Amino acid sequence: MTAPNPADGHNDPLLWLEEIEGDKAVAWVEAQNARTDGFLCDDAYKHDYEAVLMILNADDRIPFVGKSGDYLYNFWKDAAHPRGLWRRTVLESYKLDKPEWDVLLDIDALNKAEGISWAFSGAARSPDKTRALISLSFNGTDAIEVREFDIPSKSFVADGFFIPKAKTQVSWLDQDTLLFGSAQNPGDTTEAGYARVVRKWKRGTPLASAESVFEVEKQDVAAWFGVDRRPTHERVTYWRALDFTRSHISVEQKNGPHAGQRVRLDLPEEVSISGDADDLLVSPKQDWTVGGMVIPSGALAVINLDRFLEGARDFEIIFTPTPTRALESWLETRHGVVLQILDNVRARIMLTKRDGDGWIETPVPGLPDNASISVAAFGGEDDPDLGKDMLLTVTGFDRPTTTALWHGAGDLEPLKSSPRSFDSTGIEVKQCYAVAADGTKIPYFLIGKNLASSDAPRPTILYGYGGFEVSLTPSYMGITGKLWLEQGNLYALANIRGGGEFGPGWHLASRKATKHVAHDDFASVARDLAVSGVTTAAKLACHGGSNGGLLVGNMLTRYPELFGAIWCSVPLLDMARYTKLLAGQSWIAEYGDPEISDEWAFIQKFSPYHLIAPGKIYPPIFITTNRTDDRVHPGHARKMAAKLEELGYPVWFNETVAGGHSGAVDNTKQAQSQALGFAFLRRTICR
Asked: With contact defined as beta carbons under 8 Å apart, do 74 and 120 qualify?
């Protein structure tokens, strides 16, 4: 007898809640929202909502920019423009306290004119910088509509390039040619819901006639590509994404001995690469033996691309990780390769240059010790010798974000500073360690006022993620500082396995059959917070979103005794059906395939929806989702809340209509979500 397939929903009485716009499902959502509002929306909620909105709409926020050609481009939302303005200025003006902005596109005005709730999802300038491909999302969905925009006239181009709504990637090949992948129809779409075919589209021809230039199999995750238009280094790189971690990578160059040939790179399937100029830079996710040497997992190695294509394998190693030192990312510049490193979860930015037969690291000057620091190219995409300027963004838990330029030598040139959003008097940051069941030390940050001076346990939020090699690092806690830390409460950030804080191995330790390791690590941190006297189980809440929602869902069902409340945002929770819901198929490499019986055997052990049982003692849980989230299906949150309610457990639910997976398309919706979450914590762990 064949065992029933857990993914087909045959024994799920709440399957109707997966009907996103179903009348019965929407009525249930509206009733739950009203119940939650009645419980949480008191005067304190309203005060918090206004405080968050003031932070999000503050006029003195940093207008973050990207440089293209002579202009700096910014997308800006405020109280008067809730859906935002796409605008630009020049560097000399940007350095002023009040730059002069040239508004190119007003999304609120567009919405009023068209009667559609568009959200801005990005703009790609044409090679001559006179046109742009504008991506518009309906209420924050990942699916976008692409329209050609004329920058000088500030208008959409009649009969210009237009790609209907779908999950789409698009780039200019030249002024009259696009390269795009778009999940427009079943034939062009993978089982994960992404583009399967990359096409070349010439101006003046029908979209349907666009030439297919690259395609992958239906069961692959997607066909991705990258276009480098740097003079003398023009090339297109193609990725056949086999799953979330494995790819086959090919390159097609315009110049040089291999011009016009598409060549698959002889690389491991799990690897990160770049090739902005002459060199190929490679960082394998597992140890790679090549050319008589071993390039360690998480290292960075380099070789001339043309020589590699001709068969050479004499890589030079630029960076070698250590047990506590991991490479987050890198940037190719005219001055050398700039490394963004995590050293025991503390950012280090190093400039590396060839020196004889090796590479020398030099720290970028003037940077703080305990902060997150990111580096981005500041223009230079039209420079054959690579760009020379870099934009550095620096932030910390109690340190407002700042930006600065660096020109490859000398001191940083400060650009912008964020305002202080909360009173940080007495706020301290401490790095602590819990010990996992297997003896591994799990670091976490503890943030709050006067950490050493109080013996009384305090209300504490523990936040985590633990997946997809995503690192959690310090960032300014403007909203949490205002609503939580100012009141003397505490916040902890856990660097559990599954993330990337200590390189690829830290991620591989919690994947598929060992996914539960991240959850166990998180529980170890919760225990450490209680044993150390910082808090108690009754005063400890955990919070996580998306994969972090799966994490805290497991805290409810596997470790309920450790927490006084659970805040679960846009979560995965039904791990039997996740592959059938929206983009879930693309995450099989992280979680496993529930339709394979041997894999369902371990998946069901961390599937919160299936672990709910009657007769337990569960802490109260607040579950949030978004109806326009086309990445993580709202059915996960809906069904979990309904099942808990049916069994009489304390559960609260909120579903917004606009926002997508991030919920960030409208500041009012963000303010609502944050204020509801903190209102829930006040009524649970702060009593």
From this structure: no
- Token reading at 179: 């390269």
Q: Which residues pair with 199 in a beta bridge?
A: 180, 212
Q: Is 586 exposed, middle or buried (0-12, 13-18, 19+ CB in 10 A)?
A: buried
Q: State the CB neighbour count (10 A cutoff) for residue 2.
A: 5
Do the bridges between strand 540-545 and strand 460-463 make them parallel or antiparallel, or are there none, so unpaired?
A: parallel
638 residue type, one letter = R
Which residues are 499's β-sheet partners? 497
Helix, strand, coil percent content, the chain, rounded in steps of 5: 25, 35, 40
DSSP 431-479: EEEEE-TTS-EEEEEEEEESTTT--S---EEEE----TTPPP-----HH
- Indicate if 661 belongs to the active site: yes
d(CA 568, CA 226): 35
Of 137, 633, 661, 673, catalytic:
661
Q: Which residues are paired to 316 by β-bridges? A: 302
Q: Closest by alpha carbon to 338, among 368, 287, 300?
A: 300
Residue with tokens 């090339």: 235
Q: Where along the chain do its domains lie?
A: 16-53+421-573+618-682
Say which CATH class 16-53+421-573+618-682 falls into. Answer: alpha beta
User: What confidence score (pLDDT) does residue 1 get?
Assistant: 35
CA distances from 605 to 512, 517, 591 (A): 11, 12, 11
Element (H, E) at 598: helix 597-603
Question: pTM for this structure?
Answer: 0.96
Look at strands 155-156 and 177-182 and give their pairing. unpaired
pLDDT tens-digit map of 31-85: 999 999 999 999 999 999 999 999 999 999 999 999 999 999 999 999 999 999 9
Within a 13 Å sphere around the CA of 455, how many CA atoms are in the beta-carbon half?
0
CA neighbor of 21 nearest in space, from 113, 183, 135, 139: 139
**DSSP codes, 414-435:** EEEEPPP-S--TTEEEEEEEEE
Pairing of strands 336-343, 155-156: unpaired
Distances (CA, A) of 273 to 159, 301, 305, 314, 413: 37, 10, 11, 16, 30
Q: Rounded to the nearest 10 degrees, what angle do helices 23-40 and 667-682 cross at?
A: 60
**Tokens 């006029």 — which residue?**
59
The burial of 3, by beta-carbon neighbours within 10 Å (0-12 exposed, 13-18 middle, 19 or more buried), is given as: exposed
Chain center to CA of 302: 27
Q: pLDDT for 419-476, tens place per residue?
A: 999 999 999 999 999 999 999 999 999 999 999 877 789 999 999 999 999 999 999 9
Q: What is the pLDDT of residues 318-327, one digit of tens each?
A: 999 999 999 9
- Encoding tokens for residue 517? 């390791």
Strand partners, 330: 339
Give yes or no: 569 in active site.
no
Give backbone dihedrals phi and psi of 204, rounded to 5 degrees, phi first. 85, 0
Given the residues 137, 424, 546, 569, select the one marked as catalytic.
Answer: 546
CA distance between the termini of the chain = 54
